[in-house]
Amino acid sequence: MKGRRPRRRILSAHLPTSISGSATFLGWRRKVPRRRPPPPDRTGAPSPLIFHLASGAAILEKGVALAPLAGDDRFPWAPSLLDRGRAIGPLDQVSVAHEAARRLGDFVRGVEAWQTHPHARRLADPPALWQSGASRLLDFGGRGPAVVAIPSLINRAYVLDLSAETSLVRHLAGRGLRVFLVDWGVPGPAEAGFDLTAWHDLRLAPMLAAARAAAGPVALLGYCMGGALAAAAAQIAPESLRGLALIGTPWSFEGGPGMGPTLRGMAREYGAQRLTDELMAMDKAFGAVPSDLLQLLFALLDPGLALAKFRRFGRFDPGSPRARRFVELEDWLNDPVPLPGPAAVEILVDWQIRNLTGAGAWWLSGTRIDPARIRLPALAFCSRTDRIAPQASTLPLARAIPGARLREPHSGHVGMIVGSRARREVWDPLREFLADPPDGDQYRQR
């Protein structure tokens, strides 16, 4: 919506991770015995297990020294964090506390500069070709072969249409393609209880049918976990599809970096079923798994990132283009969506912990999804510097699809979409592929 600006609240993940970054610059650490948090209460409300584990085990045990802040009235939350059993004793050097306070002060000033910045996203959404519940298929027009872009369910779709200068979908629509964008929306009553099969059957499949009716055979462009849904759709119903492009699509979660190690560590201590129960308890209490939990898991990939980027932003000229670009992206990052419990269980437990996708054991819409059975020309972008979907996770999907072409950009996960090298490393080769994929007959005959 034109002029819409998300409420600029600091996410719950930013504060503890910023404490982490400000208090670990000496590399000091001390092991602390783990404590098991209490089970869910009898009312069915979620216990603080996941939040407690994530903020405690994965952040504070990385070396956070909170004790020096506990007596400072500028940090009233420090004692409560210490009481969680993850606190670490006082340091000998008082200067550590002073430096931590200085860095936190810079961080707070940067956050305030972002929160008060006047810029807002100005792009108006195009008409919707199809709509049901919270979801829409946006029609960006253009002339030429049709493309349906499928983003992640976890973040807002407008990262692909962030600004006039950084809109991938408008770029493609202006250069010889008819472009549609799947906007999943914010799940509401119509999406209550959705698992991934429901998202496919009741939202994505009808959207693809509407796009084909309007523009003929379509190519699928999947970004992040939207790429997993695109790959599944390419196997389930390849009729009238003409190609598959994937950008930063995680698939195998067996090893390597990413959020998988954190979740698997939780599963080893508490059990995958316990985590499943916790997620479903959240769904029951709140109507969905809160977005703050999902964002916290992303924050744990780089606990010092929020501290560093907001300290840096505090030094920007507020009227500069780089300040505007920072605000645009940060507004999107801080505008996440919740997930229905069953879908959250599939993504966080079945994918990240049990690795059903990478093991060839993920079922969607009654079909076991096996990328080796995809019979479409395919192109995959697997970044060398992606922290959210590292190559250990993305390359197995690219290599499993017969004949898939591979490109390895040096831009990060979001950088492949809006970064300074995005046009050269991703947009241009993507447009060439989508406009004229290799002849699909050789793939269908295999």
UniProtKB/TrEMBL annotation:
Keywords for the protein's UniProt record, in alphabetical order: Hydrolase
Keyword Mitochondrion in record: no
Keyword DNA-binding recorded: no
Residue ranges of every copy of the AB hydrolase-1 domain listed in the record: 160-419
GO molecular function, one term: hydrolase activity
Source taxon at top rank: Bacteria
Protein's recorded name: Alpha/beta hydrolase
Naturally occurring in which organism (per UniProt): Paroceanicella profunda
